[in-house]
Amino acid sequence: MTSKPVASKRPPAPIVPAVKTPSQVHPSAIIADKAQITGAHTVEIGESAVIHPYAKIRSERGKVVIGKSSIVYERAVVGVADGGEQDITIGEGVNIETGAVIEAKSIGDGSTVEVNASIGRAAVVGRYCRVAALEKVEAGEELEDFTVVYSDGQRRVDKTMRDHPEIREAKQVGQEKSIELMRKMVPNAAAKWM
Amino acid sequence: MSRPGPVSRRSTKSEYIETDTGNKISRRAHIEGKQNIMLGGKSVVMAGVCLRGDLHRKSEKPAEGEKEGPTTAISVGRASVIATNCTIRPPMRLSRGQMTFYPMRIGDNVFIGPGTHVSSLSISSHVHIGANCVLSPFCVIKESCKILPHTVVPPHMVIPAGSVVAGRPAQIVGEVGEGWGQGGGAEGEEWVEGGDLRPLVRSIK
User: Which of A51, A128, B42, B111 has the most CB atoms lying inside 10 A of its own CB?
Assistant: First the structure.
């Protein structure tokens, strides 16, 4: 891709916040260079967690914890920008896909929040839940373990996931393998936040 | 004392960078791994579009005597338009015990509406995709389809040629019928959905 206009002047570097967010990043976590971590509260990023480029972690209004083997994809936002104080805890092996907005109090282990879904303030999402693309979980709502939110607000329980521990294990193996792959693909800039 | 910021300096530049083959790429697009992205020519990538070319298929060990060249993760045909704030990310799945990204292909004269997320395996030519859709991993969209706004196409769904698709999850709600993509060229209507998008590409500056 050759550009005709002079390409020597690079666009200004991404704005680095004046005060660096106090963060505890596990040495094996992968944080892309273009991921944003902002805010004054602590951000904890667990073992083998992956933060993709253009993802945003905001700790302006409280501590954010991202568990082991969780993946935050591009343009997802984890954190509360304004309003009251609230901490956010994301469990282990959670997938937060592109453009999802997470303002929940907690998200349980093995859950998936799909593309452009949103989880409202102070909501509690259980373990192995799945919030399908474009779905919404209202503020303060509590989702029990194994809930699936799909098709414009319908709810059901994923009995396969609930009754078969081997499927949960398989899911975990898949998660580990995708992290293994991303370790090769996403350049790690975690040192910036350590 | 006001110092001229980088914004004022940039405003003198045009919004789009035009390549030798006539592709127009917004300066505000977020492109990762550009060595793995192929644009066919006369295609447009608008502001805020996120292209994840860095997520490509990595061969385990290159075969003997074969040197490892750049692999294509995303290939886009001619005169396709990717509107603002789209995300194009190649799909991944387990293959032979390993997670692998699969290269994705987008045909010619494809319009992808603003805010749409695309992880499909392939999109054929003359497809019109509305705003804020989600095309889940490994879906296949055949020629001349129309996907209405706010549709969620489930993973692995194959949409036959000439379908109109809508809903969450997506269902085929009709056919585009005869004359899809025909017309256009009339006064005030230089292009139609599913037709030749070159006039549209030309009008984008």
Answer: A51
